[in-house]
Amino acid sequence: MSYPPPADFPPPTGQPAHGARPAAFVRPEDAPGAVGSVVGMPSKPTIPLNKLAPEAALRRLELTIVRRLEGFLQGDHLGLLPGPGTDTNDARIYRPGEDDVRKIDWNVTARTTVPYVRDTMADRELEVWAMLDVTPSMNWGTEGVTKRDLGIAAVATIGFLSQKQGDRFGGYIMRPDSMRRLPARSGRSALYGLLRKMLSEPFVPDHARGSYSLTQGIDQLARTQRRRGLRVVVSDFLTPGDHELDPNVEPEWERAMRRLAVRNQVLAVEVVDKREIEFPDVGEMLIRDPETDFERYVNTGDSSARARMDAASAAQRERIRISLRRAGVGHIQLRTDRDWVQDIARFVLAYRRVASMLHAPPQGVAK
Description:
CATH class of the largest domain: Alpha Beta
Strand order of the largest sheet: 5-4-3-6-7-10
CATH architecture of the largest domain: 3-Layer(aba) Sandwich
Helix content: 25-40%
Radius of gyration: 23 Å
């Protein structure tokens, strides 16, 4: 799907649209709110960190977990007797004076010639990993918030919903040329630190090239995190150059989502801007794709042309919805013109009724 410039500003070339009044060009750094994201690359987040934790609104909600998750088998509460868990965790370098020598993993130590210890995990621990797509199409936003920052808000909300004693939350930031890993840690301070790093991640300029696509990002998430848990994929799920509208034709990322859902409970958070679905009547307008070289002027004053564009956009979103349903993952659609807390709360309440059927594992795979 292509992305139009805002209704109140001229095309990015600085020339007024055909038939419109001439207007002074507004520099991206001077544009109010998220409007700067459509006349140029945004320079700062549109949601501050202190607005990402609506704890009071979420205090009575709890995210339903229905799949068998490693480390989530013995209940939600601490036992009467304190002590370490019995499940082994990843190996790490031995720190003299801090680690117990009885925890040294001699197999890893022999292979690396460096002392390593292997921690144990509490049986109640749930591990959540969220992958945030920050490709150029996520910089778009016309309602005071960009899709990228709305995705970070979704990560924050799900992080607070899924957090219990001892649970860990980690993240990946997917850029066109790399994947940045944010280690999983427990506690609210660690979650705030992860959100701060996501907000401060440099913006990706338009037409940036790289080897990473959404498919490769999901596959890497599945390969590198082998321990079962909850996985959250935040994206607009738009593939550059994919103009297919037939829901029977699978998007290239659907197979990767299906593989990720074999061992994990997966939530897909689709972020959408209002002007991607409802095209405004602003006369002739330049439509451009920030990830490809596509550019074209369209007369939005023509009601029939506007209706065809709205229908194509609706068909595109319906194809994404059907693909995510086929992959057996939970699906939340968030829009920049709506309250994301209410949308997620509404989803969580409805999720309790359908989660067990939606996340049924494939035939032959243990639940």
